[in-house]
Amino acid sequence: MSTTISQILIILTLAGSILCGKILVFPHDGSHWVNMNVLIQELHFRGHHVTVLRAADSWYVKEQSPYYHSITIDFSVGGDAAFFKTFVFRQLQIRREGSSFWTQLSLDMELGRKFYEMHRKICEMVIRIIEDPKLISSIREAEYDVMLTDPANGGGVVLAHYLHLPLVFNVRWTVHGEAQFAIAPSPLSYVPFPLSLLTDKMTFFERVYNMLFYHLRLFFYKRVVGPHYTALCNRYFGPDVYYFELFQAADIWLMRVDFVFEFPRPTMPNVVYMSCFQCKPPKALPDDLEDFVESSGEHGVVIVSMGTLVGQLPDYIADEMAAALAKLPQKVIWRYSGKKPSTLGNNTILRDWLPQNDLFGHPKTKVFVSHGGTNGILEAIYHGTPIVGLPVVFDQHDNLSRMKYKGVAQVVDIATINQNVFLKAMLEVLNEPSYTINMNRLSRLLRDTPVQPMDNAMFWIEFVMRHKGAAHLRTESYKMPWYVYYSVDVIAFLLLVVSGAVFLIVAVIRCLCCRACRKKRVKQD
Amino acid sequence: MSTTISQILIILTLAGSILCGKILVFPHDGSHWVNMNVLIQELHFRGHHVTVLRAADSWYVKEQSPYYHSITIDFSVGGDAAFFKTFVFRQLQIRREGSSFWTQLSLDMELGRKFYEMHRKICEMVIRIIEDPKLISSIREAEYDVMLTDPANGGGVVLAHYLHLPLVFNVRWTVHGEAQFAIAPSPLSYVPFPLSLLTDKMTFFERVYNMLFYHLRLFFYKRVVGPHYTALCNRYFGPDVYYFELFQAADIWLMRVDFVFEFPRPTMPNVVYMSCFQCKPPKALPDDLEDFVESSGEHGVVIVSMGTLVGQLPDYIADEMAAALAKLPQKVIWRYSGKKPSTLGNNTILRDWLPQNDLFGHPKTKVFVSHGGTNGILEAIYHGTPIVGLPVVFDQHDNLSRMKYKGVAQVVDIATINQNVFLKAMLEVLNEPSYTINMNRLSRLLRDTPVQPMDNAMFWIEFVMRHKGAAHLRTESYKMPWYVYYSVDVIAFLLLVVSGAVFLIVAVIRCLCCRACRKKRVKQD
């Protein structure tokens, strides 16, 4: 009997530790949502109640979901899918035509204006939420335990502070650039700034470039996004509350990378590497795909996917790619929603969507042709599939340059692609065993963790709910002025004291010497 | 049938992952061994083979153990227990008598010489190992998987490099001071240097003190221990291999603290916080102790333990402590091997040894009177027992100042102790609920980890064995000269370029102005 009681007690204790919390989510639209949705599903499965704030015209975030309750703000953020699709085409064209610096700059500035506009609208959305008395009091009354947000926009940060909620980030990029640069010391001598294509071992001029690039990006971020969030903070919290500080004060940063992917660098105690939290063992393929894969025989299959943003490609690129793929003895499965390339081989099938994780996990999969998105690369590492990279925009070049450096990828310029170059890269990765050997080594490292990444992510979200934050894991060094943080005032003071002391000693010695000389002279006289 | 086969496969896979490795241990003698021995026992229980290198006259490390095989080097390191015991007495006397700065300095220098001598002897022991052909070849032939060492001495570091073994540290202090200062960026504006008694929030003059103190300690460490290890490296690896680099290149640093105990600070990916890895739920007390504890009624018990180094105290201190403890309504259990204090109350029993963890875990335990050793404090936090601290030497002041800052301890100067002051502190911690409330909060934080600390420590030792190191988790920034690490050369170069450009522009403008003036003058003429 007493055993039964103790068993019940254990069950109750476990049930208590799996606290059923209320989580408010302020997501970032676009491909970022894909990751957030994976976390939300898992939170739902663990019994938590998730509420997602979304704009009426959200690009990715659906109103209806079995996993979350949504609050739709009657407001258009204008994710501008159309712009981003033409942006990709224009970017490729500029690179292909080797257009002038000014053409590229003009496109970059247009992109900057789009981001500027996006952040302005997100701030307006936050105002709309806070200043809708019915909405904000319903949010208050729901008594959420935590705000989960992607700090690629700052709406969730401001709203969390307004609602006095602890803050958890699902993050790789922040409004100010790469996440860790905002809170961990990042010596520019060995921490390459993202998008710089540098490694952690740089020559002198690479280090010069890294420093210039870092300051340029920081300037850009501050100009493009700073004003909106500063105005928002001024509006609700007065002039003494700085947006950048609110954001640095987040309790937990769930980072979407780790050091199998990234170069090692200083980190902070409240940064949790959840890395490939979406990776899982493969399920069986649908029958038609399984038949197709099996039909590849000993040659195996090649998986081609250019991500959600690049569903279509300019015809000339698709044709060159298809022509090269047609020459392979492998079968090819290509996720592609554009016009069927004229050079498509019999060995290639096109699909709108692929069960990517299950395909990577299939023993017949030999190579992944990728645009270089973080998720795809992490899944490829998890399953040990080497990569041929065709980076298009944003962090894709940087991601793939890391993979190339680690000996698991070949990278081809997609803008100037021709079938021979692409075929050569494909054959290199298919036939040279080192790519697979290296990728299998990375796979073993990525999988070898004391806690599964998803369990780790869930643990820390629940930790913040249990303890109402994680203040003991974060420094408040961000509140210091820069000259205090870098001890410039202390060094200046010590230099002053030392030079004062030296001056005094010299003066005394001089004075003594003068006196001695005078006495000598008096004696001589 | 197929289910059975798959079950067998799973079991075999698990068995494979629980690799039975061979671990070579180069420990640090004294209280450091207590921690190392706990790790060794666990490694033994997990099926690993542990070999410990020890000097013939080792103070703590026994030759015979059910948990490890030992290799005794026929050599006297001279742990000098006698010196350290008199050192404690002399230290207390100096503080009680308020002796001059010079008396303190003279004692400190004597201590410095002892450490200097100890490190010299450890280096001699390493030479003795390497230059004994039979011994070193037997070590080589054993094909160890990893070197586990406490870098409070550098013997294990040099030996690991000599034997080409991956390196795991069980560490809080290194030869060069606090462990993290050696590898993680440590801004002195908010990272207090250990032994400084500072917190992570400092005034200007505290920051000045922190900087001076840091450089002073670094100078001390380099003078006291640097020469021996440098000579050792020169002897075996030539002039291009620096001891400090070998030591910074360790694969994994198992830190014996965490951020419930320490202030938050930057860290590195290869630092694993195992913190209270020796803490565990309490077992039942021996009958006599249980009866004594139960007899305390509602008042509960007080546990007094001054650690392994301070088994005895000067009579005047023991008498004052005993007199104060005699006045408490609580029962007192005192770990003490000295002469029975003349003022000992009826409520107090003395014991040579205590089942400390089981006593802390007893619901009747109210307060822990501690010298401030890290292990005891962590156990007290784990079980939620507030502290009255009587720091004696080394890091004890610093440890207890952290606990005082967190509102879980009162600290009394043991050197000038009198029964009234001690009694007041005891009553304060016994009667003011905030101490227990705060300690229970810390306890909840300390226990709330995704992996048990001991499992985490074991995982990472086994990780290093599985992957022959953990190179992907450590930077090689330690190989950079300081001016490269801090980008001084890059900043100087950029300043040069900017000032060059300014100079050129000014020169051109001047030249143009001069020409314009000349033309004007010519015209006027």
Automatic annotation (TrEMBL), chains A, B:
Transmembrane segments: 483-513
Keywords, ordered alphabetically: Glycosyltransferase, Membrane, Signal, Transferase, Transmembrane, Transmembrane helix
Taxonomy, superkingdom: Eukaryota
Signal peptide from the UniProt entry: 1-20
GO molecular function: UDP-glycosyltransferase activity
A Pfam family of this chain: UDPGT
Family stated for the protein in its record: Belongs to the UDP-glycosyltransferase family.
Name listed for the protein in its UniProt record: UDP-glucuronosyltransferase 2B31-like isoform X2
Organism this protein belongs to: Clarias magur (Asian catfish)
Species lineage: Eukaryota, Metazoa, Chordata, Craniata, Vertebrata
